[in-house]
Amino acid sequence: MKVNRLIFAALWVLLGVQVQAQNTDKAEMDAYINELMGRMTLQEKIGQLNLITPGGGIPTGSAVSTGVESKLKDGLVGGIFGVSSPEKVRQTQELAVEESRLGIPVLVGSDVIHGYKTTFPIPLGLASSWDMELIEKTARVAAKEATADGIFWNFSPMVDIARDPRWGRIAEGAGEDPFLGSEIAKAMVRGYQGDDLTSPNTMMATVKHFALYGASEAGRDYNTTDMSRIRMFNEYLPPYKAAIDAGVGSVMSSFNDVDGIPASGNKWLLTDLLRDQWGFDGFVVSDYTSVNEMIAHGMGDLQAVSALSLKAGLDMDMVGEGFLTTLEKSLKEGKITEDEIELACRRVLEAKYKLGLFEDPYRYADDSRPKKDILTKANRQVAREAAARSFVLLKNEMHTLPLSQSGSIALVGPLANDKNNMLGTWAPTGNPQLSIPVLEGMENVGGRKVKVRYAKGANISDDVEFAKKVNVFGTRIDIDKRSAEEMLNEALELAEQSDVVVAVIGEATEMSGESANRTDITLPESQKKLVRALAKTGKPLVLVMMSGRPMAIGEEYELATSLLQVWHPGVEAGNAIADVLFGAYNPSGKLTATFPHNVGQIPVHYRMKNTGRPQDGDTFMKFKSNYLDAPNSPLFAFGYGLSYTDFDYGKPVFSQTKLKGNESLKVSVDITNTGNFDGEEVVQLYTRDLVASVTRPVKELKGFQKVALKRGETKTVTFELTAEDLAFYNFNLEFRWEPGDFEIMVGPSSDNVQSAVVSWEK
Ligand code: BGC
Fold first, then answer.
1. Where does the record place a coiled coil (predicted)?
2. Which residues line ligand 1 (CB under 6 A)?
3. Which residues have C-beta within 8 Å of that of residue 726, sequence separation ≥ 6?
């Protein structure tokens, strides 16, 4: 142990400090950090603002850090990512703690987006469970595994509202709705951070990408965003705020611009809103080289954009090193102040203090943990349940599902016996080879009486150039040596010999995610041909659809007998799919992002406003708001999803229809399971503000409950609304409710509700 550690230890004794994350005594923390900063040089302070990566993760920007070891020793690093395992994290930490002048530990971060090594479904899939306890649990397991591997700072949750399925990163978030998105943001922060950040099992969360990243124009990643403040506040900002209210430790600024200024250099966003209005007291990290990228945005050279970012309220610079290399110069030239550097440095040190790093920098470097905590049977079981609960049944004619556990099944499709595409996008810490292919799952769950035979049938895509772009992290689209005809014939022969066909089709993992946008969101032609040919056999056709986005699958919907949307299900993919196909679990997911008929409808989402010329229904009417060549309604609406059983909704009962001020409204509805299976239903409550000072959406989700009902069982589901629930940001961006009439709607999906109007006066 070096002298500086001794000094620290002595200081602790002197101050008698007990480090306890959530109840950290602010005065004690301030005293500790004041003392420490009093000993730091300017260069060391700037060093704390530097986040580096030796390149172990996914290098998404143009740079990877160099000279990592010497920077650590020189105290020029505040945090690092792309390093994992207790041993490597300890070695890294040792360089900082034992070898740098002041021995300040570094933050060790990572992108743990949907599970660490036990990969859960992609976030859009998890969201479709509408199960907050489950989502929290997956984040909890992820935190336990990641911290066992030395990582204690997570670049998740991603809470960007996304209404454009062309955008590949729609896979990484909760979908289109601010209310649901906010609930999920809170659940994830709770799951990652727990109630004690100093616990060796919890990690600091980062809400990202602040802000509006999901609104990139044309669904093209990193593109411009532009929207009115009223839309921002009512529709896009709520999930970030929810994460902040839930105590998230850090915020990541986004790549895009906000009102003409890139987020990483936007003072209105990072200071006026985030800190002054919302009271955020953690630190802000940039996205990967997003400070440097402001040069391309036309905001000046590296020195200028770095100064702009610091002044805007950005505390840590991810990989780009503009802070490290230019801030001293800017200070000398009077372009920034020492106070601004100090403030950012203090915020980074505070995060370290809250994590308990000064007390024990090695608390996350315990060699005995990976074996005990990572990829355990119990964790894989959570992954299996989470996956099953994330699936959305979109069609089930003639009750084809669940499948009988006898007879013969033709299991076909390019994703039916595949390990490379089960984990989904942004799962760099997971190992695809550990995932369960669908064929294996069907064999595990099907039992001895059912004969499952497999044929690939088609490539994911036959397009070699397309495959090259998708295969950047390994082979995801594997173009077979056999001809398309040969594969198709094999599948058709198998189909003819079988009782039922199950086709596992859709997108490869890297067809969604970062920098994986599509202008055509239909199935690739190779698979369309397969589905058409299979449908012609006349056998019952179950389509299991994997994708990282809502797809335009109208034709497949028509041709299929049953259609199950499974997203990218994670490491237990095959088992979970088999559980659902054979009925061990009755699907209960509901869509959280609208499925359009075609890209021309985009953006299409349920929370639309009315026009002055609304069209009632889908029958074309001249001079109404509509299309000549497509309906207004989407293929599948937000909130839609079926079950193997049937749920009957009674008439909603309202506690009163005339309310005053702070009275509350109770809305109750009886749900009866009238079908042949036990099941779960997501009951949804929507409101509409009929007259207001600004135009309001035709529907807004304000509540949901997931209830389990045995066959024949009835349960009463009750929602309680207060006037506060009706509040919105008005023209002056004041968050208020306005008295008047409100339509209150209850139902199984956004396009299937029963309603009544209540009046609510001051
Ligand atoms: C992504 C972030 C991610 C970061 C670090 C960026 O390209 O936008 O979501 O956290 O890389 O890996």
1. none
2. 57-58, 60, 111, 155, 208, 287-288, 514
3. 687, 689, 737, 738, 742, 760
CA distance 464 to 475: 12
Angle at 184 between CA 183 and CA 186, to 5 degrees: 70
Q: Given this model, what pLDDT does residue 9 score?
A: 47
263 CA to middle of ligand 1, Å? 14
> Cis ω on the peptide bond leading into residue 211 (within 30° of 0)?
yes
Q: What is the DSSP string of 204-254?
A: B-EEEEETTGGG-GGG-TT------HHHIIIIISHHHHHHHHTT-SEEEE-
Cis peptide before 402 (omega within 30 of 0): yes
DSSP sequence for 561-618: SEEEE-----TTHHHHHHHHHTTSS------SS-B-SSGGG-S--TTPBP-SS--SSS
For position 57, what pLDDT does the model report? 63
Residue 147 Cα, ligand 1 centroid: separation in angstroms? Answer: 19
Name which residue sits closest to atom 7 of ligand 1, judged by CA.
Answer: 60
Ligand 1 atom 10: the closest Cα is on which residue? 155
State whether residue 86 is helix, strand or coil: helix
Give the integer Cα–Cα distance in Å for 462 and 735: 52
Return the pLDDT at 58: 61
Please check whether residue 402 is in contact with residue 583, taking contact to mean a CB–CB distance below 8 angstroms.
yes
Q: What pLDDT score was predicted for residue 21?
A: 43
Report which protein residue has its CA nearest ligand 1's atom 6. 288
pLDDT in tens, 589-621: 999 999 999 999 999 999 999 999 999 999 999
Category of 399 on φ-ψ map: left (φ > 0), alpha (ψ -120 to 50) or beta: left
pLDDT of residue 34: 98
Distance 275 CA to ligand 1 centre (A): 23
pTM of the model: 0.96
Distance in angstroms (rounded) separating the CA atoms of residues 422 and 572: 8
Calpha distance 749→590 (Å, rounded): 8
CA distances from 737 to 308, 445, 633, 721, 732 (A): 37, 52, 29, 13, 13
- How far, in Å, are 25, 400, 628 from residue 558 at the CA level? 62, 15, 21
Helix (H, G, I), strand (E, B) or coil at 180: helix
Q: In 362-437, where does DSSP find H-type helix?
A: 369-373, 377-390
Residue bearing the CA closest to ligand 1, atom 11: 288
Distances (CA, A) of 284 to 24, 63, 161, 221, 579: 20, 20, 20, 22, 42
Q: Which domains does the chain have, with CATH numbers?
A: 377-582 (3.40.50.1700), 645-760 (2.60.40.10)
Low-confidence ranges of the chain (pLDDT < 70): 1-24, 56-63
- Ligand 1 geometric centre to CA of 21 (Å): 26
Token pair recorded at residue 594: 């609208």
In the set 160, 177, 287, 317, the catalytic residue is 287
Is residue 149 flagged as an active site residue?
no
Give me the pLDDT at residue 704, please. 99
**CA distances, 438 to each of 379, 452, 578, 705 (Å):** 19, 11, 7, 31
Within 8 A by CB and 6+ apart from 91, the residues are none
Of 317, 318, 294, 295, the closest CA to residue 60 belongs to 318
Give which of 688, 687, 683 is closest to 673, Cα–Cα: 683
pLDDT at 15: 44
Q: Which residue's CA is minimally distant from atom 4 of ligand 1?
A: 288
How many C-beta neighbours within 10 Å does residue 431 have? Answer: 13
d(CA 578, CA 584): 8
Which atom number of ligand 1 is nearest to the Cα of residue 58? 12
Enter the tokens of residue 174: 């909760």
Which three-class secondary structure state does DSSP give residue 654? strand
Q: What angle do CA 138, 142, 146 make, to 5 degrees?
A: 175
CA of 60 to the centre of ligand 1 (A): 7
